[in-house]
Design goal:
heterotrimer; A alpha+beta; B alpha/beta; C mainly alpha; A: alpha+beta; Rossmann fold; 6-stranded mixed beta sheet; 6-stranded antiparallel beta sheet; 9 helices; B: D-Maltodextrin-Binding Protein, domain 2; D-Maltodextrin-Binding Protein, domain 2; 5-stranded mixed beta sheet; 14% strand
């Protein structure tokens, strides 16, 4: 039993196709839970159903073990931050923060106390008399957060709160929200379409596509063991390199997209014997080849220098793969470079169902460092 | 948003000011009709001389007039008369003022009697007298009282056309029910009051008498006492400088109304004549004063027997008679001779006994040419509706004097409005003295201003 | 020495050239701008500026029936106007009329707009109904009300009679006539005002209400703290336009009362009309028009000056 339990939750408009299809989910108390998915996946709808702003077509929603399907938003004891912040343009920052407390007729002294605390915490003390239009994007974001904080609701819902900010500010706010959530111990349900936000902020992530749950799990699990092709391509940047793979048992070769041949040692490598297999490999697992271990030589078609790492793009059949090499590499477009591709770094998916057959081994062994 | 608002607002304001200033819009409307006219001219028979005739006859009058124009157009093939309705007399005059002197001006315009002076002063009309002299036309065949009104210093300015006088309509059935003699209608103010009381007593749902707040009726009630509206013999010997009636004459009407208002026998329809007529037809009021031009309409539509009587007068005064009301036709100056002659031919046609008889019977206006009453149509109609005869009798019983010749002055429309306001004040329980004195002051001021505006 | 002087001369010369180029550019820009403005300048001149100037000019003259000036009288038309009890009564009626119509129109329209803004089945039908008076011309509406106000056969009086009350002389009683015109006007204006206010309501971000719902705000709390303030720019526009409209009321008066009874509905614009086209006193009519222009300008200015403080543009 968690703080929020969704049992067979579905949503449809006008009795047509389900926008959300039988969602079962449990969110724990104090958890930072991220709903991520492309636009139109139903993640915002799901959040608004939890808030009580949308009707639940079928299924049961429980908050703190109580069925709340029928309750209006105000009786669900939660707060919400909207994508556009929903600040009242005609009210000052102070009035905006206190709007909810006023509506609930909270005692004036209590209001002031909470206001001062919250403003202090959010760094808004100097801005209380200003109107929203006199604030910067980040300051407005803080006011919206402050409204949630001041309500002292144990559950906070956020609907893409950072999408209106520029990249630098977004990074900063990610951390602030995360710290705030931990500090206040609130349960957070956070909707975003940005997988970086999801990865960096969430205790757990739910990937949603087309109204269906794709995978629920810790960020690292999603990264290393994507449950299906969708999650594999959605999580991670640059996205996972994919290709259709055919296994030639006679030659002990795995042929990817009719272009890349991988030698397989049938004793060591346990390659799944499915008729239609799609393989995936993370960019960081396409290592620079040394004299000893070079398996392939590829022609670079694009180079991105990021300073701490270098992204190299090359063609594999019809696909473009990207390799991420740590450090700075002086490679020109058109140059042929050696790479090392290891069978154990491949994820195997069933092309028909899209489901994961076998995750990459390397990830587990090498990358998760336990402190 | 702010700027757009400000501009919008400025636009509104300016546009309003523009509309208030002069007849721009009307000018545009005038030229539009002129354009339409031109095309009809082109498509019609090229040989026919076209005469444009602006009139203000709506409803039954328009039908009767159109029938006459059609009969004229088909009676000969040299002249084509195009009759165009231009709204009320006021509206038509306003339009005329804005096109006077241009090609858009009509050949003939129908104007009400109180517009006489402004038409003469406008300088854009051709006095009929010139055509009468040139043609050797004999005006003496026309009704004397009518001729009196439209000639000034022995000159005819316009051709009388639709003339009416005010009469008193009464509900004969209601009279009978109240024990009054339906064949002996009240003749004086006092008798009207008595009859009203009897009516209300017999039927509390019916009021006795209604007087529309209409300046023309007030003028008629003055004339019936032999009183002048304006000094200098109603403006016929010299330009008027002030009112022509005495306080006793003027106030008698107000006091008469006030007494009936206090008796609660008076029905107040304000300035709305249509409501008054429909009230009468619905049996809400038993007597009212109105132009004889409505008689045909009222008789045809009433579910009871309608009586028509002479205009009442105060007991202590002799009945002096009524002023000829209605309108006349004006010839516009500066048109080609052929067009003017064609228009003159049409005017003469209108005065023939047959046409006048048709006009009289069809509307209730009376015949300009008394010979019309001998026409069979008229004889038959009078037999069927003897009430139509009353208007004729009343006019013939009128003694010709400056009072019954009617007043000439260009401020009369304004004067009427002033008297209407005063009457309504009394209807609404205002003091007679206050209302009367205010009205007289305003009336005199209006005369002064009108004289000043002519620069005299 | 000579070298020196040429050097000095040359420097300012090049500066002047530079300035001239800029000036030339500015002139070019200006004339291009004027070219774009030309159509509206011509239109405004013909239909607004010239008539306005002409009105002011006329207000200093007496005129004949055709509107031609006859005698120059200076300020006399204005003096006469301010001492005329009829005109003063007309001003009083106009202000009373504005007072009757504007607040009630806006309150009713706001109420209708708020209820029509709810997302209910078939709400489109009601929106159409509420805004339908916008599609009715002043003339048609007036004739319709003329019938309603008919002293003996009008439904209003029939209703009064049916409940045992005395019929009211809607258009003939001095204490009712202005009120009757006001009712007619309110009825006619509701359509337009409703539509504008509804538009304003719909442009309010729904997340504001959702946020308030989560905060636990009640219906009237939301109405007072969100709807009205967020609607204030629209309300401001509507108030301004309604006031100007009220000052310019003409059609319904011409059809219903002709300014009567006892001048109680003789509003300024009708008075101007009567002065000009019935009495043929274009001079004093122009003086009244100029005064009306000044009053509306002043009212609008005051509204912007004081009313706008309470307006929150987004």
């Amino acid at each position: 039993m968690g703080q929020i339990d969704l049992v067979d939750i579905s949503k449809s408009y006008d009795k047509q196709k389900n926008v959300l299809d039988e969602i079962n989910l449990s969110i724990e108390e104090g958890e930072f839970f991220v709903l991520v998915g492309p636009s139109g996946s139903g993640k915002s709808t799901l959040l608004r159903m939890i808030a009580g702003l949308e009707d639940i077509t079928s299924g049961t929603l429980k908050i703190s073990n109580e069925v709340v399907n029928h309750l209006p938003p105000k009786d669900r004891n939660l707060s919400m931050v909207f994508q556009n912040y929903a600040l009242y343009p005609h009210l000052s920052v102070e009035q905006n923060i206190l709007f909810g407390l006023n509506a609930k007729k909270v005692d004036k002294e209590e209001q002031q106390k909470r206001l001062i605390e919250t403003a202090e915490m959010m760094g808004l003390s100097e801005l209380l008399k200003r109107k929203p239009k006199e604030l910067s994007g980040g300051q407005r974001q803080r006011v919206a957060l402050a409204r949630s904080v001041v309500s002292e609701a144990p559950l906070c819902l956020m609907d893409e709160p950072l999408s209106n900010l520029d990249a630098k500010l977004r990074g900063q706010m990610r951390m602030e929200i995360r710290r705030l959530q931990k500090r206040l111990g609130m349960t957070m349900v956070y909707v975003t379409h940005d997988q970086v936000e999801a990865m960096t902020m969430g205790d757990r992530i739910m990937v949603l596509n087309d109204g269906k749950i794709q995978q629920v799990g810790k960020p690292i699990t999603l990264y290393n063991e994507p449950a299906n092709l969708f999650v594999a391509s959605f999580i991670g940047s640059p996205k996972m390199n994919m290709g259709k793979a055919v296994f030639h048992a006679d030659r002990n070769q795995l042929v990817i997209d009719d272009a890349l041949h991988l030698e397989i040692d049938p004793v060591i490598n346990n390659v799944p014997r499915y008729p239609n297999v799609t393989i995936g490999i993370r960019a960081e697992h396409l290592y620079p080849g040394t004299a000893e271990n070079t398996t392939h030589v590829v022609e670079v078609i694009n180079v991105e220098q990021l300073g701490n790492e270098t992204l190299l793009a090359f063609e594999v059949g019809a696909e473009v793969w990207t390799a991420k090499w740590p450090g700075q590499w002086d490679v020109q477009v058109g140059e042929k470079v050696p790479v090392h591709i290891a069978i154990e770094n491949l994820c195997f998916f069933d092309s028909d169902t899209g489901l994961l057959i076998k995750p990459a081994r390397a990830g587990k062994q090498q990358e998760v460092v336990t402190a | 948003m702010k700027k757009i608002l400000a501009i919008l607002m400025l636009g509104f304001v300016l546009f309003l000011a523009a509309c208030g200033s002069d007849g721009n819009a009307d000018e545009a409307a005038g030229s539009a009709t002129a354009g339409a006219e031109g095309t009809s001219e082109g498509s019609g028979d090229n040989e026919k001389q076209v005469v444009t005739f602006w009139h203000s006859m709506g409803g039954a009058g328009q039908e009767a007039l159109n029938a006459i124009v059609d009969s004229y157009n088909s009676s000969q093939d040299e002249v084509q008369v195009n009759a165009e309705y231009q709204g009320s007399y006021d509206e038509a005059l306003t339009k005329f003022n804005s096109v006077a002197g241009t090609d858009s001006a009509p050949t003939i315009i129908q104007t009400f009697e109180i517009g006489t002076m402004s038409m003469i002063n406008s300088g854009s009309i051709l006095p009929i007298q010139e055509l009468v002299d040139a043609d050797g036309y004999d005006m003496s065949g026309l009704e004397e009282n009518i001729i009196n009104y439209y000639s000034l210093d022995g000159t005819f300015y316009s051709m009388p056309f639709n003339s009416s006088t005010p009469v008193m309509y009464y509900n004969k059935d209601a009279f009978e029910a109240a024990g009054l003699d339906p064949e002996a209608p009240p003749e004086t103010f006092e008798e009207v009051e008595e009859a009203s009381k009897a009516i209300v007593e017999a039927n509390p749902d019916m009021k006795g008498f209604a007087l529309q707040a209409y300046g023309w009726l007030y003028e008629q009630l003055l004339a019936n006492q032999g009183a002048l509206l304006l000094n200098n013999d109603n403006g016929r010997t010299d330009t008027p400088t002030e009112i022509g009636w005495t306080e006793e004459e003027g106030k008698s009407i107000f006091e008469w109304v006030e007494r009936m208002v206090n008796d609660e026998t008076f029905a107040n329809y304000g300035t709305n004549g249509d409501n008054m007529v429909s009230g009468f037809l619905a049996g809400d009021v038993s007597m009212f004063l109105q132009s004889s031009a409505s008689s045909r309409d009222v008789i045809d539509n009433a579910p009871f027997e309608v009586g028509i009587a002479f205009l009442p007068h105060p007991e202590e005064k002799e009945r002096a008679g009524v002023v000829i009301g209605g309108a006349s036709l004006w010839m516009i100056d500066g048109k080609p001779e052929a067009e003017t002659n064609a228009a003159w031919d049409f005017m003469k046609y209108l005065q023939t006994p047959e046409i006048q008889a048709e006009w009289h019977v069809g509307t209730g206006y009376f015949a300009i040419n008394p010979a019309a009453y001998d026409e069979q149509v008229a004889v038959d109609a009078h037999e069927e509706m003897p009430q139509l005869n009353v208007t004729v009798e009343q006019l013939q019983a009128t003694t010709s004097s400056f009072a019954t010749q009617g007043a000439l002055m260009d401020m009369i429309p304004e004067g009427r409005k002033i008297m209407e306001t005063a009457l309504e004040t009394v209807y609404n329980g205002g003091e007679v003295d206050d209302a009367y004195n205010t009205a007289v002051d305003q009336f005199n001021t209006a005369i002064e201003q009108a004289n000043a505006a002519r620069g005299e | 020495m000579s070298m020196n002087s040429t050097a000095i001369q040359q420097t300012p010369k090049s500066q002047i050239n530079f300035e001239q180029v800029k000036k030339k550019q500015r002139m070019k820009n200006f004339s291009k701008g004027m070219l774009f403005l030309l159509p509206s300048i011509i239109l405004f001149s013909v239909f607004l500026f010239y008539p306005l100037a002409r009105t002011i000019y006329l207000s200093f003259f007496l005129t004949d029936a055709a509107g031609a000036t006859t005698v120059f009288v200076g300020w006399e038309n204005y003096v006469t106007m301010f001492t005329s009890p009829i005109f003063l009564q007309s001003m009083k009626s106009t202000f009373l009329f504005v007072l009757y119509t504007v607040p009630i129109t806006i309150i009713i329209s706001l109420f209708l707009a708020v209820i029509a803004n709810e997302k209910l089945k078939g709400i489109g039908f009601f929106r159409t109904i509420y805004s339908s008076t916008m599609g009715i011309s002043v003339a048609a509406a007036s004739v319709f009300w003329l019938y309603l106000f008919h002293p003996s056969m009008g439904p209003l009086n029939l209703l009064l009679n049916a409940i045992g009350a005395e019929g009211i002389g809607w258009l003939t009683d001095t204490s009712w006539a202005l009120f009757a015109i006001a009712i007619t006007t309110i009825w006619m204006n509701i359509g337009f005002t409703f539509l504008i206010l509804l538009g304003g309501l719909q442009s309010i971000d729904s997340s504001l209400y959702e946020s308030a719902d989560i905060d636990g705000a009640g219906y009237f709390y939301k109405l007072r703290r969100i709807t009205i303030p967020m609607l204030s720019p629209t309300l401001f526009f509507v108030v301004t336009v309604t006031i100007i409209n009220a000052f310019q009321t003409f059609g319904q008066i011409d059809i219903l009362t002709q300014g009567g009874p006892v001048n109680s509905t003789n509003l300024v614009v009708y008075s101007i009309y009567r002065e000009a086209f019935v009495n043929y006193k274009f001079g004093s009519a122009s003086a009244q028009a100029v005064l009306l222009f000044i009053i509306i300008l002043l009212m609008t200015f005051l509204q912007f000056k004081f009313g706008e403080r309470k307006v929150h543009y987004q």
